[in-house]
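Example 3.2
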Amino acid sequence: MRVPARSVTWLMLIISLVLLSAGCSRNPNARKQKYFDSGMQYFQKGRYQEAAIQFQNAIQTDKSFAQAHAELAQCYLKLNLWPMAYKELLITSELEPKNLQVQLDVANFLFATGHFQDARDRAESILEDHPTEVKAQLLLATSDSELGDLKKAIEEARQGVQMAPDQAGPYLTLGFLQEKGHDLRSAEDNLGQAVAKDPKMLLARLGLASLYQGQKRWTEAETQYRGARDVDSSNPIVWTSLASLYVAWGKRDLAEQTLQDAKKAMPNNPNAYRLLGDFYLATGETEKARSEFASLFREHPGDLLLKRRYIALLIQNKQFDEAMQLNDEILKRDPKDAESLISKGQVLDLKQRASEAVPILETAVKSDPENPAGHLELGVAYFRTGNFARAETEWREAVKLKPSFLDAWRDLSILALRKGDAHLMEDCASELLKSSGSAPQGYLLRGIARMKKGDAQGAESDLRKSSELDPRNSAASSRLGDLRLLQKRYAEAGDFYERALANDPNTSEALQGLLAAFLAQKQPGKALRRVQAQVAIVPNNSIDRVLLGEALLANHQTSEAQNELEKAIALDKTNLNAYLLLAQVLEMTGQSNAAASTYEDSIRENPQEVAPYIGLGVFEERRGDWQKAEELYRKALVIQPDQPAAANNLSYLLVEHGGDINYALSLAQTARSGMPDSPNSADTLAWAYYKIGAYDSATPLLQEAINKSPQNPTYYYHLGLVYWKSGKLALAKTNFERSLRFDPKSSRADEIHQALAQLSATQ
């Protein structure tokens, strides 16, 4: 069939267009430009991820496409991918070494990322090729300022003004540098010049307003902030700056109204509509904040950050079920979302389900190991399950990641007080006082640390300061009582303790101090009556019941003491001291099986505490079951590998019963390090040295032990053996005789008599 001429013409046109299109697709220059143009369209719409993909496609087509590298760098900057942005900027600068803007971009990037010397070097290099480039001159000035040479920086900024006297930027830079140098009059003049040169320069108006605000020139500051708002009412910063002025000015209502206006002006800008709720949070108006965020969440259910803040407020308001419902929605979408896992763990912890919170928070920390809040909450969960060593590890990691993390420092301070760790107290005190010079807890901690180090004057100064800042601070009064007790000024100690109890009847440490003061004065009857009176006021205080048990024991009322200690345990099944003292009372009264059961109950209720393992171990040693004692000491060391008492006792058992002597020596050294003033640790280490034949190392340790405990027969016996092996027979005989003198019926008496007989035979 014949095709009409008109149809042939159209057919040829279509074929030509197809061929032309195919030719373009095969043309690399056309293809890269197509990708580039598409990337620019995405960039202008704020779709930076899509733009980056298109620029990458363009670069794949032509690796030397400098403009694509430059725009890709801008995408990465928008996406906060700083290392990738810097890489693209460097590539661009190498491709176009004479491109002034690119060189400036690289230099500005270096400055923004804190590489001030590199930024300065780049700025100098640019000025060599472009001596009148004012942007490079100003970058030179700001770099020198950050490098510590403010005088030079100001002079360089003045040169910038001379280079471009009609531009606002140089005046702005000079004004900021002069303000930094406290030349406020000159700073005001130059910031004013910047505003005059460019009334629409937002940074200039904000800078001048901030200067006025710092001088409490409220009306002038308000004028500039309002001017900044008129320049760009779509920028949340201008609204927050104006609101902050009103707060500082004492006009809270105007601050609130400003942020309400900001929300109306930018109803779809998250950084604007959240401002009012954040304001309520900052001013402590929790209920208003909860109401505001609830309303916002209904309007913007897709705003994840808003949802998280609302969840946090619900948790704070103890609306756990609603909080967890919203939180689980996030976890359903992403089961490893660290923040939501932290929130879930926090709620479980607040609901007294810390053991359930631990694995959830461990997952959160594994998912985001750099999140200090995760380590904080995991530490809290560990602490509440009795795992104090792990709690400390997590809290230390939290402050390592965020040195200014006050919540973590406060938790560490509680642990420091519990452990009596003076160094940790000082660290916590330093951070708390750094954040606020009027922090009572900071002075309290530093005072206790100084008291532990023997600095009575410094301790008293800090403790009194803590008490002045918080007159109802019973802890400070109690510690002042402790200081007087150490000084044997018993009447004054009693006054401080009574003041603490008047402020807080549950201050058990003050009652403990009173008990110690009466007993130190050999007044057990007065001690008992005072503790009984306090227990009548607070009958459900488990710690006070233990103190009553101690007072009864001091008055030889053993059965009554046992009864009070059992009541203390009934009130608080985790009261470690109650278990330990009750076990001692039961052993003392011949109730050995009951004593062992009490230690075991204590371990069950306090599985992460080493004291009951050690207590039961010592008890089993006295009963002759050294194998069980060894097992208990090993368990204690699993919980706390550097626990000196457990290390000391296990070392001694290993030496005595043929265990691994190298491990025993290592344990003895650990014990000695942890208890450097203990004669017992000196003896254990010496005994280990004796077993490996290091007699010269053993001798001074045993001499030290005897000096500190001159009536201990074991120390003389060990020293006698060391002297015998060293060939110092007369000294050996003297120490054997002293050992028998102090304990003539000891289990080793026959062995010592045989040694003395051999020594006599050799002399």
